[in-house]
Amino acid sequence: MSTSIEINETVRHYYGEVLQSSADLKTSACCSIDAMPQYLKTLMASLHPEVVERFYGCGSPLPPALAGKTVLDLGCGSGRDCYLLSRLVGPSGRVIGVDMTPEQLEIAMRHRDWHAQRFGYANIEFLHGHIENLTTVGIADDSIDVVVSNCVINLSPEKPRVLAEIFRVLKPGGELYFSDVFADRRIPGELRQDPVLLGECLAGALYWEDFRRMLQVLGCPDVRMVKQNPISLDDPDIAHKIGMVKFKSVTVRAFKMNLEDRCEDYGQVACYLGTIPEHRHAFDLDDHHHFETGRPLRVCGNTADMLGLSRYGDHFQIMGDKSRHFGLFDCSPGPHGESSASGGSCC
Ligand SMILES: C[S@@+](CC[C@H](N)C(=O)[O-])C[C@H]1O[C@@H](n2cnc3c(N)ncnc32)[C@H](O)[C@@H]1O
User: Fold this and answer.
1) Distance (Å, rounded) from C-alpha 232 to C-alpha 219?
2) Phi, psi at residue 39, to the nearest 5°?
3) Residue ranges making up the domain that contains 306
4) DSSP code for 314
5) Which residues does the UniProt record annotate as the domain Methyltransferase (predicted)?
6) CA–CA separation, 181 vs 155, rounded Å?
């Protein structure tokens, strides 16, 4: 049985020495630029090619409405998402990237001045440290507006500690928005230490129900799935070892606020104002809440709070409060299905 230190060392070796570019990965997890919305593709064009080549993420955890915010990227690697975030938060915002692999951070840091010159400002700090203990890199309680992470939490041998740290450093009303590999079952014990399966983000992949329970313990009983994509195991050896498990890359959204463990009906209505510049016509909270600009939608109490008590509050009109209760909220699946499997509650 490997210790946490040994698992960290296996992962550090994989990302510091084994992989040289995203082409070396053995699964389809690494998402292509084609899947990005146009405004992110435009920003991608302003990044240094080496930073783009060394991207090992499995999604685009870049939520809207970031101008002026402080964003923390856990396991920032060679910095692709940090440089995109730098543009999204703008000169009055701040981006902090944390990673434990010196070789990855060295690439991120080497291109900092190059990007600062292109962007006309410098607002990124890269810190060497472990995401299980963010005090060692000086991240204070309640100091971060948004925590993002791209294909990293699965690699941690101490996931509950990472999640606890996230909720410690987030400001009240702050958002966790991350992409990661999830498995349709718990990974068999004998495969969890396999160095290649670990490095490829498979051996430590989260089983959704266990992840949901971890967040519940931390006081977050309603977590939302935003997007999901199946991952194919392209390498025959890997498929032979672990092909009985189905993997997907999932983008997840959770908030630091008091929420209920079920969707309750208080007769509330939310209307998106269309004021987020890159999302003029609609805003997707999750895979079954699609808010068209100007079109009121009935919402449960949790959804009303996620929209009204977070930074999205400036962009929504929430009608009604919690003074009168009408029972459980009937949150039937949207056109994409997945309602009951996609969150900590029915919503
Ligand atoms: C799959 S790569 C993703 C890198 C980056 N997010 C991206 O999208 O390109 C995983 C990264 O997480 C870092 N990492 C893994 N476990 C970590 C831990 N416990 N603490 C800090 N960094 C960690 C690795 O060093 C590596 O750079």
Assistant:
1) 34
2) -65, -30
3) 268-337
4) G
5) 68-216
6) 10
Q: Is 272 inside a domain boundary?
A: yes
pLDDT tens readout for residues 290-341: 999 999 999 999 999 999 999 999 999 999 999 999 999 987 655 444 433 3
Tokens coding 32: 């292509």
> Residue 200 belongs to a domain with what CATH number?
3.40.50.150
Are residues 239 and 275 located together in one domain of the fold? no
Atom 2 of ligand 1: nearest residue by CA position: 56
Q: How far is the CA of 98 from the centre of ligand 1 (A)?
A: 8
Residue 204 and residue 293 in one domain: no
- pTM here? 0.94
What's the CA-to-centroid distance between 77 and ligand 1, angstroms? 5
Give the CA-trace dihedral at 199, 201, 204, 208, to 10 degrees.
180
pLDDT bracket for residue 30 (50, 70, 90) = low
Could you give the C-alpha distances from 184 to 2, 96, 162, 199, 201, in angstroms and in order?
Answer: 24, 32, 21, 19, 14
Closest listed residue to residue 104, CA positions, set 40, 24, 11: 11
Please report whether residue 321 resides in a domain.
yes
For ligand 1, atom 11, the nearest C-alpha belongs to 75
- At 290, list the tokens: 């699609």
Query: 25, 155, 181: which to mutate for ligand 1, most atoms within 8 A of CB?
Result: 155
